[in-house]
Amino acid sequence: MKRITDIHLASSDTCTGCSACASVCPTESISMKIDREGFLQPCIDTKTCIGCHRCEKICPAINAIIKNDFVSHAYNAQTSDEYALNKSSSGGAFYELSRYIIEKEGVVFGVKFDGIHVQHDYAETLEDVEAFMGSKYIQSEIGNTFKIAKSFLDQGRWVLYTGTPCQIAGFKRYLNRDYDKLIMVDLICHGVPSPGIWEKYIQRLMRRIDAGDIKDIRFRIKDIGEGGRNNFYFFFFFFLRDQQWHSYGEERMKNLFYAYFTRHLFRASCYQCPYRDMNISYADITIGDYVASVQRLERDISSTVIVHTKKGEDVVQKVSEHLGVFTPLQDIFVNAYYEEARNAEQTERNIRPYKLSNRLAMIFPLEYIRWIWMHDRFDVVLKRKIKKLWQKNIK
Ligand SMILES: Cc1cc2nc3c(=O)[nH]c(=O)nc-3n(C[C@H](O)[C@H](O)[C@H](O)COP(=O)(O)OP(=O)(O)OC[C@H]3O[C@@H](n4cnc5c(N)ncnc54)[C@H](O)[C@@H]3O)c2cc1C
Ligand code: SF4
Ligand code: SF4
Ligand code: SF4
Fold first, then answer.
1. What is the mean pLDDT of the chain?
2. Tell me: the pLDDT tens digits for 12-46?
3. Cβ within 8 Å of residue 52, ≥6 positions away
4. Is any atom of ligand 2 closer than 6 Å to the C-beta of 305?
5. What is the model's pTM?
6. Looking at ligand 4, which atom is closest to the CA of residue 192?
7. Cα–Cα distance measured from residue 160 to residue 179, given in angstroms and rounded to the nearest whole number
8. From atom 4 of ligand 2, which residue's Cα is the shortest distance away?
9. Which residues contact 346 (CB under 8 A, 6 or more apart)?
10. Which amino acid residue places its CA nearest to atom 1 of ligand 3?
C-alpha cells in the first residue's frame, strides 16, 4: 500500500497542541504524543492516513485567522456565592456561566485533575463542575472532548466549552459551523507550562514527602492560610497515607514550580501566539483576573469578563444577577491582566533558549537547573557561564 507522506501540519514551534487535527481525522491516524519538552504534539501514522488533508484544512496555526467584527467590551464581575468565590481563582465568572448552562440541562466542558494529570472533561451537574473550578497552570489534554461536545450539540443540548484561546480556536475550526446553544469561553492566557515537566516535578515531590494517593490539587488557593496576594499558597494538595488524610502546601515564593512558571517557560507556540489578541478571540466570552482588585491585595480577587459576540453579551446579561458587582470597564487593557499576558517577554526571539531550558527540565530535576530560570535571559547566562569556564581553564 502507498504511504501518504505529503501532509504538512503546523511546525513544532507554532503547533499549540489543540488536538483539532487528531479530532477531525476520519481514520484516527493522528495521535498526540509527548515531545522532548513534555508537551503533546500530533504524530501521523502514514500507514493508515488516506491523504484527505482534513487535518491541514482545520489547523488554526496554518490557516488564516477568522476575524470577528463585533466590538469587544469588558466588565468587572464577582459571584455573590461565597463558596464558589473561595474555590475560584478569580471572581467566579466561570461558575456563574456554568450554573446558567446546567440549569438549562446542558453540559459544561472544563479542565480537571485526574490524579496529577491535567485534562479536559465534561460535567452535567454543578457538583461535577466543581472539579473544573480554579486555574491549573499546566497545559491540559483535550482528549476526545471536541467529538463528545459536538455529539451533545447535535443532540440539541446546551454546551459551555472552556479552554485556553488556542484550544477554543481549534474547537471552533473543528466544528466548522455555528450552534445557537454553544457558548465558548476562553481565558486571558499568558502561556502554559509543560505537563511532562509538571508530572516529573510532582512525582519527585510526592516521593520526597512520602505522599501516597493524591486526591485533590489546587493552585492559587484562597481559603487556606493567610490568603491575600502577598502570601498565598501557589499550590496545595491532599493525599491519603496509611489511611489518614494529609495535606501539603508551599507558599508561592518558596515553591519551585512557581519559580519555573514565572520564568515563562512555556510551550514554543506561546512565544508567538496570535490568539491572545482580544480582537482575534474565537470565543464568545473571555475571562481573566481583574487587575485593580489584585493591586489592592483583596483576598477575593474579582474577574474581568470580556464579551466578543452578541450571544456572549446575552448570556452575560442573564447571569449578571448572580455575578454581583458588574461594572462596565472603560479600558480593558488597563483593567485586565491582559497587557501582561500579551507582553510577558514572549517574543519569537526567546523560543530557542526556553525550549532548551524545557528540554533540560525534562532530563534533570528542577532543583538542579533552577539557576536557568532565575535569570531573564537564559542564553545570556549560558554564554556568561561558558566564558567564565573558558577563562578559568586558560588561566
Ligand atoms: C494557564 C493559565 C494562564 C492564565 N493566565 C492569565 C493571565 O495572564 N492573566 C489573567 O488575567 N488571567 C489568567 N488566567 C485566568 C485566571 O487564572 C482565571 O482562570 C480566570 O480569571 C477565571 O477565573 P474564575 O474565577 O472565573 O474561574 P475559575 O474557577 O478560577 O476558572 C476555571 C476555568 O479555568 C479553566 N481552566 C483551568 N485550568 C485550565 C487549563 N490548564 N487550561 C485551560 N483551561 C483551564 C477551567 O476549565 C474553567 O473554565 C490564566 C489561566 C490559566 C489556566
Ligand atoms: S490527511 Fe486525512 S487521514 Fe491523513 S492524517 Fe490528515 S486527516 Fe487523517
Ligand atoms: S490542529 Fe492544533 S494540534 Fe494539530 S497541528 Fe494544528 S495547532 Fe497542532
Ligand atoms: S499563550 Fe497562546 S498558544 Fe500559549 S496556551 Fe495561551 S493561547 Fe495557547
1. 83
2. 999 999 999 999 999 999 999 999 999 999 999 99
3. 26
4. no
5. 0.90
6. 5
7. 11
8. 49
9. 190, 191, 264, 266, 270, 271, 272, 273
10. 59
